[in-house]
Amino acid sequence: MICSIRHAPYFLCLCSAERQPLLEPICAQSPYPVIFVEQIEEVMMHALRHPPLALLLELATSIRFGAERMSKFLNLGVNWPVMRCVAQPEGEPRIMCFEPPHGETLLAALEGIASGDPSWEHPRFKRRHLRLNLPGRVRLRVMGEERWRLGNLQGISCGGCFITMTTDTPAVDTPVELELVDFAPAATRVCGVIAWARSWEESLEIPGVGVEFDPATVDDGFRSYITRSPQIGDLISEM
């Protein structure tokens, strides 16, 4: 069973310092804190370590970075809403979200997302964590067993990973322990549960398992390694 220890929920907002006073009074009424950042790199660092409830892109700040770069935030493959936010000197800020479609006041959006309103569920994406392509060797064993099974890491986040395995894959919902051999300078241990499994026979896609990590076993060193990876530079450079 996955441990319930998690990072406190929060919202993330890309907004220049001069525009923040237009949003802060409204954001202060949110049931969860809003973290303001001024650079795309800061957005990605926060989101990789701990995914937000939603990402706000203040319109004037977004224009500074260009429409093409901002549009790529809509295709991160994660389930938290990405909202454009219009802040004006007079009148309450409003948001516009394409997936799922919403157009309303900023405070109403924050309250709806925080309350778990199902209308904010993403229609295409289910994954919460940003994933990086970090190849490496992995050892996996079922909790309570001594035998290790071997696989190769294909993608990883602070919330889980995809391991290619052609045979001897554990069943879904099986608690497991992982040793990530090439993930960091020293072998890294993390625990989790098999979230899904795909065999060579049943699919044309690469066979293997998806592991959901126990957040209590993903320490700050693990999260820091993810955000320092050269792959994060590639992810940002594509935006």
Keywords:
239 residues, alpha+beta, Thrombin, subunit H, 6-stranded mixed beta sheet, 6-stranded antiparallel β-barrel, 7 helices, 12 strands
Characterize the structure shown.
The chain has 239 residues and is α+β, with helices and mostly antiparallel strands. Helix content is 23%, strand content 28%. The chain has 2 domains: 11-120; 136-236, Thrombin, subunit H. It has helices at 20-27, 40-49, 59-65, 67-71, 106-114, 220-228, 230-237; strands spanning 11-14, 34-37, 55-58, 82-86, 94-97, 102-105, 136-142, 149-156, 160-164, 175-180, 188-198, 208-213. Strand 5 (94-97) and strand 6 form a beta hairpin. Helix 2 packs antiparallel against helix 6 (220-228).
SSE order and pairing:
Elements: E1 11-14, H1 20-27, E2 34-37, H2 40-49, E3 55-58, H3 59-65, H4 67-71, E4 82-86, E5 94-97, E6 102-105, H5 106-114, E7 136-142, E8 149-156, E9 160-164, E10 175-180, E11 188-198, E12 208-213, H6 220-228, H7 230-237
Parallel strand pairs: 1-2, 1-3, 3-4
Antiparallel strand pairs: 4-5, 5-6, 7-8, 7-10, 8-9, 9-12, 10-11, 11-12
- The strand count comes to 12
* Range of helix content: 10-25%
Largest sheet: 6 strands, mixed
Question: What is the structural class?
Answer: alpha+beta
Which oligomerization state do the chains in this entry correspond to? single chain
Radius of gyration over alpha carbons?
20 Å
The strand order across the widest sheet is 2-1-3-4-5-6
What average pLDDT do the residues reach? Answer: 89
The fraction of residues in strands falls at 25-35%
Low-confidence stretches: 1-5
Could you say how many structural domains there are in total?
Answer: 2
Number of helices: 7
Gross morphology: elongated
The H/E string reads EHEHEHHEEEHEEEEEEHH
Give the end-to-end Cα distance, rounded to a whole number of Å: 37 Å
